[in-house]
Amino acid sequence: MDSNSRGKEGREEPEAELGCCGCVLTGVSIFILIIFFPFSLICSLKIVQEYERAVIFRLGRVLSGGAKGPGLFFLMPCVDTCRCVDMRTFSYDIPPQEILSRDSVTVAVDAVIYAKIFDATKSTINVEDAHASTKLLAATTLRNVLGTKVLSEILSDRESIAHTMQSILDHATDPWGVDVERVEVKDVRLPVQMQRAMAAKAEANRDARAKVILAEGEMKASRSLKEAADIMSQSPAAMQIRYLQTLNQIAAERNSTIIFPLPIDMLSQLSKK
């Protein structure tokens, strides 16, 4: 249900009968208005801003048609009372809440909510203070939702938690004429001991991954060397070329040691003897 459809609900209410006493008071109000004209006219005019709506009560009853505005309205003295409601989006910072997660870890979580009043009449007659009630309900909902999550879910599934909170709050505040537009989890603070334990665990995981990668690299290098040795053993000329390349690399280092290479054939004959 969107804000436009909800804004139409509850606005068209039949005007209740004033009764004899109400009619008398209305007549007296008109009489006073005529006697003290134009001063009474100045006191009876009400200007409502573009972002406001005015809920007018006549002898304690809401006038038919719901909230009025924006524009200029006339109030009958001593009979009508007016309450202006701000329809703009408002935001609240939920103070940090100490929450015990499902895996028995205490964390401090704070959040922010964005909401607006879509029905000024409901927000006036159904709840004493719509803003304060929404703020208190948001803090309670935050504790209830996070109490069913484990620590890993609280740290990684913030978007899902925010969506769940928005759904619950929007449903609960609908009778108050409040539409919760957005919920954001700002920060999750862990105890110092838990931070140290998580850091040690992360470091151990990194070391384990490094050892696994090193072992895999050595295994691949050993396989490559074995394949190269098998290929070179089948061709004596390839072995001689590799031998000469190694001597060239040693000579390029400008060492003081002089090496006299022996032919590969001589080495092979000595190895046979």
If you had to describe this structure to a student in words, what would you say it looks like?
- With 273 residues, this protein is α+β, with helices and mostly antiparallel strands.
- It has three domains: 3-84, no CATH class; 90-193, Band 7 domain (Tetrahydropterin Synthase, Chain A, 2-Layer Sandwich); 231-268, no CATH class.
- The chain has ten helices and eight strands.
- The chain has helices at residues 3-8, 19-35, 39-44, 120-125, 130-146, 151-156, 158-173, 192-233, 236-252, 264-272; strands at residues 45-48, 52-58, 61-62, 71-74, 80-86, 90-100, 106-117, 178-189.
- The chain has a three-stranded antiparallel β-sheet.
- It is rod-shaped and about 125 Å long.
State the name of the first-level CATH class of the largest domain: Alpha Beta
Distance between the termini: 96 Å
What low-confidence regions span 5 or more consecutive residues with pLDDT below 50? Answer: 1-5, 7-16
The fourth-level CATH homologous superfamily of the largest domain is: Band 7 domain
Task: Give a count of the beta strands, DSSP E runs of length 2 or more.
Answer: 8
Strand content: 15-25%
Structural class: alpha+beta
